Amino acid sequence: MGSYVAVYLQSTFTKLNKYMKRFFTVVMLVAVGLMSCNDGVDKATKEKEAYIKSMKELEEKEKKSPVSFLSVSSKDKNNLLGQTVIKGSVTNNAKVCTYKDVKLEVSFFSKTGTLLETGNEVVYESIAPGKSGEFKFKNFAPTGSDSIAIKVIGAKTD
After folding, report:
1. Which of helix, strand or coil describes residue 110?
2. Residue 63: which H helix or E strand, with range?
3. What is the Cα–Cα distance from 85 to 77, expressed in whole angstroms?
4. CA 116 → CA 83, 107, 112, 144, distances in Å?
5. How far is Cα 67 from Cα 157, in angstroms, rounded to an integer?
6. Which residues contact 75 (CB under 8 A, 6 or more apart)?
7. Which of 24, 37, 40, 78 is 20 to 30 A away from residue 51, measured at CA?
8. Residues contacting residue 157 through CB under 8 Å, at least 6 positions apart
9. Phi, psi of 121 (to 5 degrees)
């Protein structure tokens, strides 16, 4: 009878051990699954934080140097009153920053390339990233002027 009890207990422990292994395996799989899901959330959070940081750095760079991100194009003609009419656009090439009150320098040159006169004009318009703002100025050009050059010399940020 003693050997029967020993065999029964051994058989019971073997079955219990088998169930414990299965239970432990299931618990480990669930734990690994939860940790891997958490890593995905952490990775997504880290990527989002890195993106936000890079956008803030880019915005600071664009705010410090608006002249580097603004370009101007123009055409000029003379009207019946003898004024030089300058029409053009200012384009914002920045990715984040919106610029406003863009300050332009208008220079008049002679046929030989001598600078005759320089003046400033302001485009009072907000220009979003990737967009352009139109302008039109009328000036009395100095005597002997042959060509005009316009460049951006400053802007404010929103």
Report:
1. coil
2. helix 2-64
3. 5
4. 16, 8, 11, 8
5. 12
6. 86, 87, 88
7. 37
8. 62, 63, 66, 97, 98, 99, 100
9. -135, 155
CB atoms within 10 A of CB 147: 13
Q: Give me the amino acid identity at 44.
A: A
Measured CA distances, 7 to 4, 25, 66 (Å) = 5, 27, 87
The predicted pLDDT at position 114 comes to 93
Give pLDDT, residue 82: 81
Q: What are phi and psi of 153, to 5 degrees?
A: -120, -5
- Mean pLDDT, 10 residues at a time, the chain of 158 residues: 55 62 69 62 82 88 93 91 91 94 95 94 95 93 90 92
Structure tokens at 149: 């050059």
- Do strands 84-92 and 99-109 pair parallel, antiparallel, or not at all (unpaired)? unpaired
Buried b (16+ CB within 10 A) or exposed e, 23-33: eeeeeeeeeee
Taking phi first (over 0 means left), then psi (-120 to 50 degrees means alpha), and beta for anything else, what does residue 136 get?
Answer: beta
Written as six digits, the tokens of 85 are: 């009419």
Beta bridge partners of 119: 106
pTM for the structure as a whole? 0.67
